[in-house]
Structures are given as structure tokens and as C-alpha cells.
Amino acid sequence: MHDPDQAGAELDSTAGVPDITAGRSVSIAGQWLAPGRVNLIGEHTDYNDGFVLPIALPQGVTCTAASGANGEVRVASRQRPGAVVTWPIPEIDDSESGDAVGRVRHWPDWARYPLGVAAEYLRRGHPITGVDLELDGTVPMGAGLSSSAALSCSVAVALRDLFAPGLTDAELIDIARTAENEYAGVPTGILDQSASILCRAGHALFLDVRTREHRQIPFDLERFGLRLLVIDTRSPHRLVDGEYARRRAQCEAAAATLGVASLRDIATIGDTRRIGEPVLRRRARHVVSENLRVRQVADILGAGRDPREVGPILTAGHASLRDDFEVSTDRLNTAVEAALTAGAYGARMVGGGFGGSVIALVDARRAACVTGVVEAAFAESDFAVPHAFPVVASAGAHRVE
Ligand code: GLA
């Protein structure tokens, strides 16, 4: 087990990457980009069959890919200077032996994502004759912004265009997610990969995880003089340390107590009072109330109303993650409180929790002031300097060249 974001990309990389196609016969080449994400609302709802509302970030991972017939998958990463991992396709292919996941232990941590995606294509019967992949990216690592999903999805879209053009978006999302779950050993839901593949520029993605139905909701803050700030608290989050899996198990136990397949099936917060065990009751209350918040925010934005109206709902989502789901931290709480003190309309932690980033909805002209107040609060508490930056809703995974 390892940090999922270690395989992703980091900001400001200047390291060189070897020309891994030198001397090889290449038939098709191109470059694909898959973005990281930030979730406006809908945290820890995806593995409860609920609702999510992410946007794609301008930051992403690029995969420069060249297909050939050399019988190998070869991967290099600009964030791993000098390291080139080459693996013969018959050893990745477990469509007959069912053994590829067991071989993961031979792969370096960072390469488990791209090789896992390749293995999953093979397992599903899509032949890969040979491919060279060069990865590079700008999603901050460990910031809860899905650098690992950006990585998996960039490879998944590249391999689709090169080897399996008929693949649907839903299959692509499943392949990227399986690579993370089984090969990298990170038990994510489907939020991050869905956001990276399905999001559109200028829109938030409303996704019903159970039915996979989704719709694009206009999200143009500039028109309202607003800005969405991401504040990376520089305290890396980890999904693999057991807490995330524990929350999943608690949600399943809560659903079982209520006699439903998943907490998605619970319509009102009042229903969660039937759970006797106080921790499970709080976990369920978060999930049920968060699903309601997603739909409220989607309704407000979908009707073209002023996005300032969603501010208090975002802040209520933070309180629920902090008090009922217990996945927030002092740094995340400090960032949220300081942003609100400085005039943010709403603020909340994003992603799985236990570190990572916060979002704040602010007047564009107050963005610098909010950043300053958060930085001062961090200095006061002796926390490392946070990194705040504005984001706009950007395009999902696509071919760049
Ligand atoms: C992580 C997981 C997602 C989702 C979020 C919490 O980002 O990868 O699947 O569960 O946490 O909403």
C-alpha cells in the first residue's frame, strides 16, 4: 500500500524525460490530457450509490502515446526522471491466467496506474500490440485533487483511441477505476474517474452514481463576479491508511441496520434516527444530508440562480464532514473558518479528507484578501504556508494533438 497521489504529477516539474520511442517503429502517436477534479458538493456519497457534483480542473496529466507492434508496454514519467518501466504484454495480460493483479508487486508504485490500465484493457479482451507512454502533469500531489485519477484516465483515453475506439465512456471510467482499486490498491469510488472523463468546460457534472445518469449544469462564476478558490493545505491526504475503508464499512453497516441496499435509499434525515449505534447514525446522517445538498446545489445552479446562494450549503457540507463523518482536520477547519471570516460565501473541505484541500466561493475582487487571511491564520497556528489558486470548470479528458 502506498500514497495514491505519489503516482500522479506535481506542479512545476522541470525534470527531463527520456525519448522512449527512440529506435522503435511507431505507427500512431498522439497526446491526450485528463484533468484532476474538485467536487463542489457530494463527498463520500459515491460509494453509497448517491449523487456528486464535481468540476474538472485546468490542471491535468498528459499522456503522450505511440502504438507499435513490439509486444511491450513502456512507461516513463516526467515526475520520475530517468525511470523507464518496460513490461512484456503477455506478463501483463491475465485474460487467461487471471493473475495480473498478483504481478503488481513487481511493478514500481507509480507505474501501477498506467500498467494497471493496460492490464485491464487486456483482461477485457481489447488487444494491445505494444505502446510507449510518456506521462507529465500539473495536478498537485496529495492535495485531494485526483492526480491519480487524472493519470489513470489519461492513459485510459490514449489506449482507447489507439486500440479500442468503440469503448464507451462508462467502460473507460470502469477501466480507470479498476486500475486504481485492484492494481494500485486504493479503494476509491467512482467520483474522480467520472469527473475526469465526463466533465465539460464551463459546467459542473451532476452524476447519479447508481444509475450513471448525468447532466451538465452551467457553472460560469465569472458572469456573477465570483471566483472559486482551491486552498491546498499542504498536508497530504491518504486514502490507503484504513480510515477511508473504515468509513465505507460503517456506511454499509448503517445501510444494513436500516434494511436497505445502500444509504442512497434513505430519503430523509429523520430515518437515520432508527440507527441505535451513535457513530453509525452520524455517518448515515452525513450521507443522507449530503445527497440532499447535492440536489439543492444542482437545482440552484441549474435554474441559473446566483451561485452565492449555494455558499451556505457548501459550508453546511463541511460541518457535516467535520462533525458527523469525522474526516476533517485542524488545517482544513482553519482554512474554512478563515475563508468565511474573510467574506467567502461558502467553504468546505474536498475529497476523502484527512488532509488535502478546501474550496472557497468568493467575490473575485476579494480573492487576494481571502488568501491573505487564510495564510495569516495558518501562520498563527504554525501550519505550513497553504497554496491558494483560482480554478475554472474545465474540459474532461480529450486528445490534445
Ligand atoms: C476520494 C475517492 C472518491 C470519493 C471521495 C470522497 O476522492 O477517490 O471516490 O469517495 O474520496 O467523496
TrEMBL record:
GO cellular component terms, semicolon-separated: cytosol
Assigned EC number: 2.7.1.6
Cross-referenced Pfam families: GalKase_gal_bdg, GHMP_kinases_C, GHMP_kinases_N
Domain GHMP kinase C-terminal: 305-367
Domain Galactokinase N-terminal: 32-65
Listed PROSITE patterns: GALACTOKINASE (PS00106), GHMP_KINASES_ATP (PS00627)
GO molecular function, one term: metal ion binding
Signal peptide as annotated in the record: none
Keywords: ATP-binding, Carbohydrate metabolism, Galactose metabolism, Kinase, Magnesium, Metal-binding, Nucleotide-binding, Transferase
Enzyme class: transferase
SUPFAM superfamilies xrefs: GHMP Kinase, C-terminal domain, Ribosomal protein S5 domain 2-like
Alphabetical GO biological process terms: galactose metabolic process
Domain GHMP kinase N-terminal: 118-198
NCBIfam families (UniProt xref): gal_kin (TIGR00131)
Record-stated family: Belongs to the GHMP kinase family. GalK subfamily.
Name of this chain's protein: Galactokinase
Protein source organism: Nocardia uniformis
